[in-house]
Amino acid sequence: MKEFRLKIITPEKTFFDGMTAEIVARTTEGDVGVLSGHSPYVANLVSGPLKIMLQNGEFRVAAVSEGAISVSADETVILASAVEWADEIDVERAKRSEEDARRRLAEYSSQKEFDLAERKLKRALNRLTLAGK
Amino acid sequence: MATANMKDVKRRIKSVESTRQITKAMELVASSKLRRAKEKAESAQPFFKALYDAMCDIAANSPISSQYTRKNIVKTALLVVIAGDRGLAGGFNHNVLKLAESRCAALREEGLKVKIMPVGKKAVEFFEKRDYELADTFQQVAEGMNIYKSREISDLIVAMFRHGEIGRAELVYTTLVSALSQEPVNIKMLPVDDFNYNKDGKAVSLTVYDPSPEEVFDGLIPKYLNGMVYGAVVDSFAAEQAARRTAMESASDNAGEMIDNLSLLYNRARQAQITQELTEIVSGSLKNR
């Protein structure tokens, strides 16, 4: 299959920069697959899985917290606040932050705290789901 | 007399020496923190550049009418002022706070009410003491800054804007020009209107925006503003470290100079004492003859 260039950029570092044949990302409108030669496309991403096809034809899954995807003729760029390979997720840490988020959700005192806790819980759950626990 | 003076000088030398030790240590700490902060600020660049480009593309491809770009009639402006958590950084805090005050005065002249959102302990203290209307305040956030913490700040700003509490938001912080120079700057956050609109008739690309350009644009705005806040805080922290390093370097130099002068004084006094003792002995022996 024909390959295209994929870049995944987070504020901390460039997480991935290489060739792939296919990716599947979760946008606000649902899962979107991108193959080589895709027409220019821009959408926002919600936190969820991002599948990237490796050279051997298998998908490697990464956990993405919200971001954006931008497909252009020469490359595809994914911007995300945080990305982790699913097989490298620190399950203990994710569980801890899940508990922490649930505790905060139980005792919030303002809308702001609620929003923050909810977002944190979503991130933790996303990572736990993708890690398969 | 001479001995008392010598004791004094000795004590002062000691105290200046210990001061120099402290300033030297602070200088070293600041320069290692500066290196890390600079790396952090630089590695964030590509992300926000790509985000900004994406937004420019949307603005160029389709005429956007978003609540975030429209001029607002609300007569209150929010000034987000980012300063340090600690002092002893030369004119760092003073300069940025001075710029904030003059910007505030300028906004008031335009007939706007001004609210301040100080970030950093020094900024909070400064504005609490004076007669300003404060929004939320943030302290001790700069050093361990990450994208989620800056999101707290930027989400508050976005919420205030959407609820009509403010019609404008600006950012005042210090940018690191080089390790030796830092400059306080003032940039606009909301409403966003400084995108390079593509007016020179360049071919419009056939990009598909899912679900619509407006919605993608509005979805990107909080991330973009978050990036602005994150970038400013990280930049300001690097600038603070650079300012502190320079200040502590010159403090150490000055302490060294003081020690040199005092040692000279001490040696002179010691010499004078020896000479005097010798004179006394000689004159005594002359009398006894």
Largest sheet of chain B: 5 strands, mixed
Helicity range of chain B:
55-70%
Fourth CATH level, the homologous superfamily of the largest domain in chain A: F0F1 ATP synthase delta/epsilon subunit, N-terminal
What is the helix tally of chain A? 2
Number of domains of chain A: 2
Number of strands of chain B: 6
List low-confidence stretches of chain B: none
Structural class by helix and strand composition of chain A: alpha+beta
What is Rg of chain B? 29 Å
CATH class of the largest domain in chain B: Alpha Beta
How is the main sheet of chain A built? Answer: 9 strands, mixed
Pick out the low-confidence regions of chain A.
Answer: none
> CATH homologous superfamily of the largest domain in chain B, by name?
ATP synthase, F1 complex, gamma subunit
Total helical segments of chain B:
6
Shape of chain B: elongated
Sheet-strand content of chain B, in percent, reads: 5-15%
Which CATH C-level class of the largest domain in chain A is it? Mainly Beta
